[in-house]
Amino acid sequence: MLSRVANSLFWQARYLERGETTARFLAVTHGYAQELRSVSHAAGDRCWGVARQLFAGAEAPEEDGRATFRRLALDRELGTSMLASIALARENARGIRDAIPSEMWEELNVLYLLLLESADAPPSEAGELSLLERVKAVGQSLQGLRDSTMVRADEWHFLRLGQFQERASISLRILDEMVSHPALWEAAEVGQSIDTLHLAATLRAFTAFEAFSRAGHSLTLERAAEFLLLDGRFPRSVEFGIQELASSLHVLSGTPQDIFSNDAEQLCGRLLAELRFASIEEIISQGLHEYLLRLLGRVEQLAGMIGQLYFP
Amino acid sequence: MTLLSDYQPGSAFDEVVDGGGKVREHYKPLVESYQAFSAERLSRRQKTADLFFLNRGTTFTVYSEDAGIDRIFPFDAFPRIISTEEWSRIERGLKQRLQALNLFLHDVYHRQRILKDGVVPVELIYEAKHFRRECIGLPVPRNIYVHVCGTDLIRDRDGSYLVLEDNLRSPSGVSYVLENRAVMQRVFPELFNGYDVRPVSDYSASLRNVLYQIAPAAEEPVAVLLTPGVYNSAYFEHTYLAKRMGIELVQGSDLIVDDDTVFMRTTRGLERVDVIYRRVDDDYIDRLIFREDSILGVPGLVNAYRSGNVALANALGTGVADDKAVYALAPRIIRYYLNEDPILDNVETYLPLDDATLDHVLTHMDRLVVKRVDESGGYGMLMGPYASRAEIDEFRRRVAAEPRAYIAQPVINLSQHPTWIDGRLAPRHIDLRPYILFGEEIQVLPGGLTRVALREGSLVVNSSQGGGSKDTWVLSESPRNRSDLEPGTWDPEPEC
Questions:
Q1: Before B209, cis peptide (omega within 30)?
Q2: Paired sense of beta strands B148-150 and B75-82, if any
Q3: CB nearest to B230's CB, from A94, A110, A311
Q4: How far is A67 from chain B (nearest CA, A)?
Q5: Region B232-251: what's the mean pLDDT?
């Protein structure tokens, strides 16, 4: 396959995953911020502050929650808005229309046109909420198209690499923001505990709440963090993502999984071994925040190695 | 009849309504089917069709507009129908013409008999912008230069088909032929009742065959489509054809030439390329040989081509036969090589090479269409009757200074066709671009792109200048009327 095509496949999948995650996070934030207002208005506002921090960077201006919601969803000027991520996914797909199923391009294009139209329409909170649902649904449908219509050839693996690379990296960032969430101390200021609400919202940001509950876990920070980081059976956990990266990397190079033939495979294998043999208690006792940051740095390093290897 | 009761055919040849105001025979079932459409239903269907194009990204980018803004090519839902007899003449004419022009190209780049015999003036060839000295004496596979051709045809006042342009370099638009048909079948299925329309969907398979037929000897030859990139106005078409042919779509930067061999950069290293269906013009294809500022092409490609290590479709240098001055001599070229009269005539064309013709062109410019010989797509031309004094003076100056660079033609009133304008049928001018493939044999795609000038009275059909398009039906010799069904053939029960 052409290196340029591999590059576009990888980034198409990354941006789509980012757009979908943005949609999910905004939807969760919208509900959570509303709930928290009954505890303290400041706590509710903090939720939107975290969303800004995650999707608009540290220099994002202070503004009210409603404005943040609109901006993170549909701002054309903001390069990290949901609209921008979908536009970039589409732009990458447009350059490789011949390499992906037609329906995949069409779904992305239709979604993009809808978001553009909404960005020009007057703001409507209900309208924007239903757009979030739409983005999530298209994300699922594209994943379905990928898995049910594409040959398990290099194209498929590069889409997977992009998706799980992005998933691992954005999950770590969201998790990090959620464990040191300022709403927690706003609530403490007014003498209330919102731990249960907060953990539920955190799990929902990963569509993990139902799966977590079904697994019979009790709602504690240890169990939630363990589920999202270390449960290799849950598709949105970090460990699962690394597992998938390793498996696609090894299929691409034709090397068995117990050895490595390039530095991406080596780093990926190490990460996987560490996650598989880690315990959450150990991680928390050594400092969850530091652990997440360190892991994020290595996951990003892995992305650079994949790029060097296949599309320098 | 209500559908066409307000319809006012103009002075041009009307494709649907004859001189006596009657609907032509082959349009009757269509007009009848359309009678059943209410205005609302029609507008709903038209919206569905437009959305279909938009959603599929069947779009083009106009150079003068903001980059990144895609527009659909306006689609008119009243199809153009060509009868079996008409088509058979067109088909024969196109094959004859391509055969002759291909022999001409081979001759011009080899023995140059036609120049030595004085049938085509030598200076016309050597001064042509698209003549490529690099190609002299260069053998090409099967002696085919033009593998893909898109001839523009128009109909004059009495309905005869005339050739307006040959388009022998890198004609575009065929994807709209295929997409228009797909949309028509999906959105207006009822209109096909009563017709046996010849299919067009096998075009990409035929094109693919042509590409592999010209491949240099190799175990498993690899063909690619070379595009100028995502900002080219025909980018949609490039992805569409590459996908349907199952070949890689490449940009110049994906290819590299080493030891006179072309490779593409893949995730597993370099892979050899044997055939390039290139949608990049000669000028831009190799900056070592042609334009130095081009970043669209592949440095070293021409040497690889000259070494016979890679085949190009179309071959290099075909533009010389596309020159409008050479076009003017096409009837002579056909007679010279084939010893036949042209089946399709040219539009009457003045070549201002001698003083008398030049004088005629200069004095009658307000009644003529003047075109630069090396331009296409509606650029570099003057429509005398519609031009201002100043524009005419400007062209007069240019033609006098450089007569070789221009031709002039009388204004041809293109035929007209009922077209949906604001929910009603109104006459609009159309042309026809059939697509012809040349591999083991010459094949003409039944149909082609019918372009419509959507502005009232306008004769300019180019997509870059306000044109739209129609699905184009070529009718087969009605197999439905055959009475020779084989015994044992499944015969559906009447009530099914």
A1: no
A2: unpaired
A3: A94
A4: 28
A5: 92
| DSSP states of A177-201 | HHHT-HHHHHHHHTT---HHHHHHH
Q: Give yes or no for a contact between B46 and B34, defined as CB atoms under 8 angstroms apart.
A: no
Interface contact flag, A98 B55, Cβ < 8 Å: no
* Alpha carbon of B224: minimum distance to chain A alpha carbons (Å): 11
Q: How far apart are CA A123 and CA A126, in angstroms?
A: 9
pLDDT the model gives residue B68: 53
Domain B348-410 CATH class label: alpha beta
The full length of chain B comes to 496
pTM of the model: 0.85
Task: Return residue ranges of chain B for CATH 3.30.1490.270.
Answer: 348-410
Beta carbons of B106 and B98 less than 8 angstroms apart: no
Say yes or no for a CB contact (<8 Å) between A4 and B242: no
The rounded Cα B485 to chain-centroid distance in angstroms is 38
Q: Which chain A residue has its CA at the smallest distance from B53's CA?
A: A106
Q: Provide ipTM, 2 decimals.
A: 0.74
Please check whether residue B255 is in contact with residue B226, taking contact to mean a CB–CB distance below 8 angstroms.
yes
- Structure tokens of B340? 């036949």
**What are B's interface residues with A at a Cβ cutoff of 8 A?**
54-57, 230, 239-240, 242-243, 248-251, 253-254, 264-268
Tell me how crowded residue A306 is: count the other CB atoms within 10 A of its CB: 25
C-alpha distances (whole Å) from A50 to each of A58, A180, B3 are: 10, 10, 63
Q: In this complex, do A3 and B242 lie within 8 Å of one another by their Cβ atoms?
A: no
For A111, which residue in chain B has the nearest alpha carbon? B55
pLDDT string in tens for chain A (312-residue length): 999 999 999 999 999 999 999 999 999 999 999 888 888 888 889 999 999 999 998 777 888 899 999 999 999 899 999 999 999 999 999 989 989 999 999 999 999 999 999 999 999 988 999 999 999 999 999 999 999 999 999 999 999 999 999 999 999 999 999 999 999 988 888 888 888 889 999 999 999 999 998 888 889 999 999 999 999 999 999 999 999 999 999 999 999 999 999 999 999 999 999 999 999 999 999 999 999 999 999 999 999 999 999 998
Q: From chain A, pick out residues whose CB is under 8 angstroms from the CB of B240.
A: 97
- Residue B349 in tokens: 């064309």
Q: Which residues of chain B make contact with A252, given a CB cutoff of 8 A?
A: 267
What is the nearest CA distance from A85 to chain B, expressed in angstroms?
16
Chain A residues with CB under 8 Å of B239 CB are 97-98
